[in-house]
Design a protein that fits this description.
The complex is a heterodimer of chains A (about 350) and B (about 100). Chain A has 13 helices and 13 strands. Chain A is α/β, with parallel strands linked by helices and about 350 residues long. Chain A folds into two domains: about 5-135, Rossmann fold (3-Layer(aba) Sandwich), CATH 3.40.50; about 160-350, Aminopeptidase (3-Layer(aba) Sandwich). Classes of the chains: A alpha/beta (about 350), B mainly alpha (about 100).
Chain lengths: ~350, ~100
């Protein structure tokens, strides 16, 4: 699934070249602008990689009427600009498309980052009909994604200038993590998170809204679905994560844990894991077990799990629920932790 | 964690120096170049977050051919620069035997 389109400017997103247009009297290429608007409406981000002076990004934003999530302008390699944008937005190469009219630039990016979908401007009209560009559901969170990444950029600039620790910065931003039982209104977004998240997803298969509806049994039920919302003084990111918890024989099993990479570095995954251990302890559980399918892509989740005090083993016989099975042979690890009362950061709000 | 002495100071030292260069690049901070081997990689040490840690392991696999994430389920070797260097040097030495 493509989450971000990275655009060249001259003769791609712009009809003409920025530096050669008198008084920068330019307009956006109408076909490209139409594709950009259509994709933005599907919750796909846009970014700029261009060999132009930095002010060309603001010009492109004015001409297209779109806020770009990231922009790299300068004379370096295009592949370095694309890699920089991926790092800044927390995306992997397979989640990005790169559009450039210059075949040499397309070749350079394609060789350096083979997972990036490389397109010529004339491919766009057809490409926007491809499944890679067509998320099955589009939630309000998805439509606001461009704005959220724009506030993320402001947040990162303030973080870079901030003198204190990461925790102090979260406090300074008035970070609020709200943990609550899922309601019916959350089901489409939970389904969306299940297929859009990869780096922080413990199973890596799409889970239907009807499955979440069936599992959402409330705090006393045999299974429950917990949601995590995030906001701070820069903006409201809405529902950014969730988990499924089932209880059997005194053990809290977590067969699904997922978080949007948009929430990375903002204390969310640590807060959720601490909350799970604490809630299990308050319910007199004897153990918490998070099952995690071992993939190349969810290494960040595994780092977060071990950082939160979980230890893995492969020896335990683990059966994934039907809805979590991909059909392929998967390596599954069980991450164990004792229930405990780790102190929740003060910015976590539990909604009863 | 399993360790053998076969990594050798020479190879371990070279791996350590390469890791520091990668870390300085990923963190955009030259502090990694002069950090002691027992400096923690994550959070309060060199300040890598979980995504930065994952990025480092991708670079380690490309550079040294050692798939740390696949071999070390608990990722204990991310404890410090030194533990990661030792793990990588150990696996490389194992291949040469």
């Amino acid at each position: 699934m493509i989450k971000c389109v990275i655009w060249d400017l001259d003769n791609t997103l712009l009809a003409g070249t920025y530096l050669e247009s008198p008084d920068q009297r330019l307009c956006a290429d109408p076909d490209a602008a139409r594709a950009l608007a259509e994709l933005a409406g599907r919750g796909i981000l846009h970014a700029i990689a261009s060999r132009n002076p930095p002010e060309a990004a603001a010009c492109a934003a004015t001409l297209t009427g779109h806020a770009f999530a990231a922009a790299r302008l300068g004379w370096g390699k295009k592949s370095a600009a694309v890699a920089g944008i991926l790092g800044e937005l927390g995306l992997s190469a397979g989640e990005a498309a790169f559009v450039d009219d210059d075949p040499l630039e397309r070749g350079e990016v394609g060789r350096a980052l083979p997972e990036v979908l490389v397109l010529a401007p004339e491919d766009l009209a057809e490409a926007i009909g491809w499944p890679e560009f067509s998320p099955p559901v589009i939630t309000p969170e998805a439509r606001r994604r461009g704005d959220m990444y724009a506030s993320r950029r402001v947040r990162q600039e303030e973080a870079a200038a901030f003198g204190g620790s990461a925790d102090e910065f979260l406090r300074y931003c008035r970070t609020e993590v709200r943990i609550a039982e899922a309601t019916e209104a959350d089901l489409p977004r939970l389904h969306e998170l299940s297929f859009r998240t990869h780096q922080f997803n413990s199973v890596g298969v799409p889970v239907g809204a009807e499955i979440f509806a069936r599992l959402a049994g409330g705090p006393q039920g045999p299974s429950r679905v917990v949601t995590v919302r995030l906001s701070d003084k820069f903006g409201d990111d809405g529902l950014v994560g969730g988990c499924v918890i089932t209880v059997s024989g005194g053990t809290w099993h977590v067969p699904l844990l997922m978080m949007s990479c948009r929430a990375l570095g903002r204390g969310v995954i640590g807060a959720l894991l601490a909350w799970i251990r604490r809630a299990a302890s308050l319910a007199d559980a004897s153990e918490v077990v998070v099952t995690c399918v071992i993939t190349d892509r969810n290494v960040p989740l595994r780092i977060a799990l071990t950082g939160a005090g979980f230890r893995a083993d492969m020896a335990a016989k683990i059966t994934l629920p039907d809805w979590a099975q991909s059909g392929e042979h998967a390596r599954v690890a069980a991450y164990h932790a004792a229930p405990g009362q780790p102190e929740l950061p003060h910015w976590v709000v539990e909604v009863p | 964690m399993e360790r053998s002495a076969t990594g050798g100071a020479g190879q371990g030292g070279a791996v350590l120096a390469d890791l520091k260069l990668m870390l300085a690049d990923i963190t955009s901070d030259d502090a990694a170049l002069t950090a002691a081997p027992d400096t923690p990689l994550l959070r309060d040490g060199l300040g890598l977050d979980s995504l930065g840690g994952a990025l480092l392991l991708v670079r380690v696999r490309a550079e040294f051919g050692v798939d740390v994430a696949d071999e070390d389920l608990n990722l204990d070797c991310l404890a410090s620069i030194g533990t990661l260097a030792a793990f990588v040097a150990d696996r490389m030495a194992g291949r040469c035997r």
